[in-house]
Please model this.
Amino acid sequence: MTGSIDDQLSSLSSSQQSVTWRSPSNIAIVKYWGKHGVQLPRNPSVSFTLDAAHTDTTVSFVEKVSKDDEISIDFYFEGAPNEAFANKIAKFLEGLHSEFSFLRDYEFKIESSNSFPHSSGIASSASAMSALALCLCSIEKILTGWPTDSTDFLNKASHIARLGSGSAARSVYPDVAIWGAHEAIDDSTDLQAIPFDNQLHEAFKGYHDDILIVSADEKSVSSRAGHALMEGNPYAPVRYEQANRNMIATLEALKTGDILKFGKILEEEAMTLHALMMCSDPSYILMKAGTLAVIEKVRAFREETYLPLYFTLDAGPNVHLLYPDEVADQIWPFIERELVPHCVGGKVIRDRIGAGPRLLD
Ligand code: 2P0
Model:
């Protein structure tokens, strides 16, 4: 389906017994790092919604013949049954009973696949949990007629996605999404993300994010453990203040098209995130030698050319390279020649800022 989310939702019919959503990953500009309670962030975050890196999820549902209290799911990942994921999702759904009263009345088959290889080192929780949340909200709409409008629908989808994985809350909106309460940002809340609506400056339209796969190995410390280690980190309070300041500066840069200010914050946030990991107790490092080599080359390239190529990092060794479309022809040859050799198997995912999730036929 194409068209607005309202158009897409209006195509849902009460007779259908399966629904498929394609939902993208996102890259945080101001990072969410530290949480409390039930998936509540310690600081607000803002991200670019991506496009090429996405998950397709189909949920089929059949009414149970005899009702019981169990959640019944079959889960297939990339076409094959996957018990580990099935158990994780069953546990997630158990916690959603108060959100979706139908969960124990149906048998569910969930089929999920990613546009990027499972072993590419790209985190899939944001795209996977947002795709699943969108499917569940669509099933609620099919069965009950609610939510009637797309604002309520996306609000709930973001809320459910957050319960699955914090960063997934941001993936339901196009272009730019904000998650976490900030006193100077209207409607911002810890409970779900909100859209940036039409405030993004032209300069960021079609913005590139080339994701350099420096390592595809499993991370030594998961994001869940990383968030938890923020609780004892002596720098945490200062970090949360910095994130609040960076939110305002980033949103200002996104509105005014200030690419240089945007780039400066982008890199500061990446370095802070990894510095927080290094000064956790126990300390850990997720960057690899290749990560540092790429960072140094990007900085030298910028000094030499004055071209606006900036990097950021997720909670891992892979480097995201962000730059405007209008200078792509000048920047890509450098990336290809100097940086791709640092990638495993020369692997780069060439992504862009994206239009958000899509209901598939
Ligand atoms: C972010 N990251 O804002 C930050 C920056 C990684 C670095 O959110 O435990 O998978 O599922 O809520 O969302 C990665 O953590 O953590 C993350 P959970 P999540 O994107």
